[in-house]
Amino acid sequence: MAQFPTNFLWGGATAANQCEGGYNEGGRGLANVDVVPFGEDRFPVASGRMKMLTCDDAHEYPSHEAVDLYHHYKEDIRLFGEIGFKCYRMSIAWTRILPNGDDDTPNEAGLAFYDSVFDECHKYGIEPLVTICHFDTPIALIRKYGGWKDRRMVNAYLKYCAVIFNRYKNKVRYWLTFNEINMLLHMPFIGAGVYFEEGENPEQIKYTAAHHELVASAKAVKLAHEIMPDCMVGCMLAAGQYYPYTCNPLDVQAAMEADRDNYFLIDAQVYGEYPVWALKRMERAGVRIDCTAEDRRVMKEGVVDFVSFSYYSSRTTSADPEVLAHQSQGGNAVFATVNNPYLDESEWGWQIDPVGLRITMNSLYDRYRKPLFIVENGLGANDTVEPDGSIHDPYRIAYLRAHIEEMKKAVLEDGLPLLGYTMWGPIDLVSNGTGEMKKRYGFIYVDKQNDGSGTLERRRKDSFYWYKKVIASNGEDLD
């Protein structure tokens, strides 16, 4: 094979809560992502250590308007069509469909909105790839059940899935059950609507919530195949290979254990059961999961069709406490990493490792033997608008070029089955990690600033024209 398959799905990826806006319009209910503020309280809330279930006047919430795709979607999808997208990965906002999360009657205005979005995509020959739950738990269900720590969330999620599967069965073929499901263990309020009260065992709550999401995912896969026999349903993880800091066997073991921690929820979604080491690890931590015989049956019957993942950087770890004492959060306050002296860094401290993408892809395929789909990969940077209105972003082009080159090697030289590549943030959006607008990923610049000011005007960056050329040549022309 000399090039990518002709049906390779080139495109871009967004999340409703980071680009859509219109958080209180069209009958939409409040979700966990709406109450996570910008500023110093962002991570305490996202991690469940600070309880916040409403918005207040003391904080800013950039996602409330975001880049207002809710009112600009026709313009934005037209621009995606101009680039030549074959695929647009997006999410449905749960509370736009079921404002309280488990309503008996869905919100027709919300259903009609996504009908129109999908119609616009098909108008330009763009295949939607829909994330059912992208860091999105209805506040009403958090108040009612405490989020995903309660098993009743499974039925609420399945009710939501039944509505959207039946409504969009003729418009959407590719689905993802949960975004970056492993992030639940790092940002439990974002990932599962979970916060911790004094005296509670956070580890028990996180793993219980994860189990409920795994059961819900398996049931959703089965339901999707019943309603849409030709559909494909995937899982999704925040990926990035861990390297040992040295060849000391203890460092090698530390890296292996870190990878295991990152993968074990995906292990369950692919194989339909927990790996034995994960069960022992939970046992040692005093965590007891109520995994019923019915759960085990459901998980076996609802394994995913493909494995999708985000990749921004590799990570490095060590068994040496002195080395770990100097590790960095890499600008995102989630995955700590020891500095790798062989890698450069982005403006936000994320280490740039294109070869790590190929390594990660091979690790995932060796482990799962399922088709892969890269559904996030991109560079957050502070772009400058020139006096003539142009935006020159050679750093973004260089980052994407280097990663696509390694992706090509994984497909063409290593033979890995890859369904597609949807880079993260084809249009500027609110950063999930920091809540900033100035951390821009897009090919399309949006005039919106950290302080909320801006006209929301869209502008094409240099990378827009570069990616258009990449897609038109099916990955052959990367210059």
UniProtKB/TrEMBL annotation:
The active site is at residue 376. InterPro entries: GH, GH_1_N_CS, Glyco_hydro_1, Glyco_hydro_1_AS. Pfam families: Glyco_hydro_1. One of its GO terms (molecular function) is beta-glucosidase activity. Transmembrane segments: none annotated. GO terms for biological process: carbohydrate catabolic process. Keywords: Glycosidase, Hydrolase. PROSITE patterns: GLYCOSYL_HYDROL_F1_1 (PS00572), GLYCOSYL_HYDROL_F1_2 (PS00653). One of its GO terms (cellular component) is cytosol. Belongs to the glycosyl hydrolase 1 family. This is 6-phospho-beta-glucosidase.
